[in-house]
Amino acid sequence: MKGAIIAIGDELCIGDVVNSNAAYLARKCTEIGIPVDRHVTVGDNLEHIVAELQRLAIEHDLILTTGGLGPTHDDRTKEAIAQFFGVPLQHSEQAEQWIRQYLTLQQREYTERQATQSTVPACCKPLYNAYGTAPGLWCEKSGFPTVIALPGVPAEMRFIVANSVLPELQQRVRNQPRILLRTYGIIGIPEAELFEQLSEDVRRWENEGITVAFLPSAKLVRLRFRWTAPPSVSAEERIADIESVLRQRFGRRVISYDAPLEATIGTLLAERGETLAVAESCTGGYLGKRITDIPGSSRYFLGGIIVYSNEAKKRFLDVPQEILDTVGAVSREVAELLAANVRTAFSSTYGIGITGIAGPGGGTPQKPVGTVWIGIATPSAVTPHLFHFKGDRETIRRAATTHALLLLLEQLTATTPAT
Amino acid sequence: MKGAIIAIGDELCIGDVVNSNAAYLARKCTEIGIPVDRHVTVGDNLEHIVAELQRLAIEHDLILTTGGLGPTHDDRTKEAIAQFFGVPLQHSEQAEQWIRQYLTLQQREYTERQATQSTVPACCKPLYNAYGTAPGLWCEKSGFPTVIALPGVPAEMRFIVANSVLPELQQRVRNQPRILLRTYGIIGIPEAELFEQLSEDVRRWENEGITVAFLPSAKLVRLRFRWTAPPSVSAEERIADIESVLRQRFGRRVISYDAPLEATIGTLLAERGETLAVAESCTGGYLGKRITDIPGSSRYFLGGIIVYSNEAKKRFLDVPQEILDTVGAVSREVAELLAANVRTAFSSTYGIGITGIAGPGGGTPQKPVGTVWIGIATPSAVTPHLFHFKGDRETIRRAATTHALLLLLEQLTATTPAT
User: Fold this and answer.
1) Phi, psi angles (nearest 5°) of residue A123
2) Residue B218: is its pLDDT beyond 70?
3) Which of A72, A184, A205 to mutate to test the interface with B (most CBs of B within 10 A)?
4) How many CB pairs under 8 A join A and B?
5) What pTM value is reported for the model?
6) Which of A17, A74, B299, B334 has the smallest count of CB within 10 Å of its CB?
7) What domains appear along chain B, each with residue ranges and CATH number?
8) What is the ipTM of this complex?
């Protein structure tokens, strides 16, 4: 079974909205063993949607669509699917019942407009949507690929996928070979050099059917290993080989990267029974946001202070006015004070302090945009680190938080717990 | 001129990375008047890349690609472009010089591996990349569309687009009609009802060549108006008509939405000479992050406290233990205290307090996952607001920050400055 994804919506086509749905669907398909080799984005244009369905149908057994199921005139997906299958739209009792139920909960009326949402192409069955009025659609007709249409609102799409789509797809592919993925991060070695050092191993792995992708990001390169295995075979043996080669060559620089960095750090902190607090100036809460993206982060994350103004740096974390007057807010001294004093203020094991110039304004010849100081406070020391990030505001702020997490990770992998 | 985008990379295809580059490129093209009607994502697969180039070439004058220009064996974009145009790869003196320059700055060697990055398809000229070793490519050959190849690393891609691609494209389309876009947000009216109320206006606008898209998100529906105008015609007249219709029907519920909510609020706060501080529990810094996404936010954003633990709520914002013991951390009382006390602590005009259950764990029958209290403190009052958001952790946390911003916006549009 081979899959493709069509994301539908003018707002996607013109770049008003980033297409995160396609990534979500592709990941879910990949995880259960359905390879996805095409994503397409088209506008709310009947002809274009039908053309893409027809084109992808030639080589794909499964087509997932998102978007264009709303109640307004610019939503054309159902029409396009009906045309593709050559079937009429018809009323669905089940869909109407779900929509009425949903509207009642919202204390809203079932109007003519919503009635259009209870029609489905004749070869499709509606899929329950707990978060909105647009049901998903599961469409099958002999000689055609399976088409699954989902709403564009991410929470609605994800609900229907988890509730109705994945369980059924998993059943269908349970005897198929699975695609296995494992990712490692190598800290502090440039992509080209890494490739040099691993070129023979990569050749060997590829001969064994394992493809290796090099994914550089900030000062970390991720290596993604991908191979196909029968449903009965465990992934463990091959992983052991891969991991031992990497550890042998790069030692402590190797981290498992199947989970995001935030989650890896969270697991380590929780295992060690340690805690963290952060003081953020130029990142303004971004680091705290990333740490708390992880469910259960309250086990180790106590909180933080967003010291976006100099006044806040003085008032909450005792940065002396004199320091601000002499070396300035973006300095080794302030990064150290933020890290050490937020650690004390929260009584946490670790403290992180970030101060820098995210741009686009505010740079000087001495401290250009991208200058960021990060302080890491541990029970025994406070260490300052200077970075010069390149790129726009989002890139610099994200890089600052990523490097703060990497510095903490280094700390956590290099030491045993203090207690 | 009509454009299409091809994003290249296995990591995109399997959903490991969200394709934000395509949205960026589509937005930039749309802004200068080049409509984009297709985005395609393919893996690092020579045959697939060539097939998509050939297919899109039939109906498009401009194809932008991102990704697959790196130095490793899985980067196939240059090969694919050479094959598409039917030209060989050849060494570029200019590319080599830029790569050597970049490596010298990084104190790295120019190796055989990097040498592969200085070859380009014969009909392409390299484009300067200040942030990495992969130059962009501008490829032209009679009878073919223009193909512009960009690296996949977002900061590198954006640099090359701003520095080399947009200035040249803008020149080429300067006498073409432009696409004009204006967006309004309507607060608190469901999409279907809005469509009912506006259906006659929408028909009239569409007859005048203005397409209207309804984009629902949280409790706000965005209306995006899009039309084409000759380069000489100002957009103002048509906008005045649209805006007066919307204001007449929906009054204060209408906001201009051409900038993100964070920027709209920032402009209002700066104009009013007012300031803001935030206290975040379940959002963990997400609100501060969004506010500080906006350059220049230090004019009105003083900072915040991330009170992720109960201890932090007590220590930094004087939430009494008794309140936590009786009504709990997720309560009207705590939201009010967070908002009022963070406002006092930072001496700001406004204070926002957020406390809730982001899930997936931590819900109870009385306070299910998605329960969020938001407090808004102004110079004259503290108002609590209860929400029950649906969806996963990211959806709930994002919705909480969006509604906090919307509540503040309501405050800012409903009142004149206190001073």
Assistant:
1) -95, 15
2) no
3) A72
4) 349
5) 0.83
6) B299
7) 3-172 (3.40.980.10), 178-256 (3.30.70), 261-414 (3.90.950.20)
8) 0.83
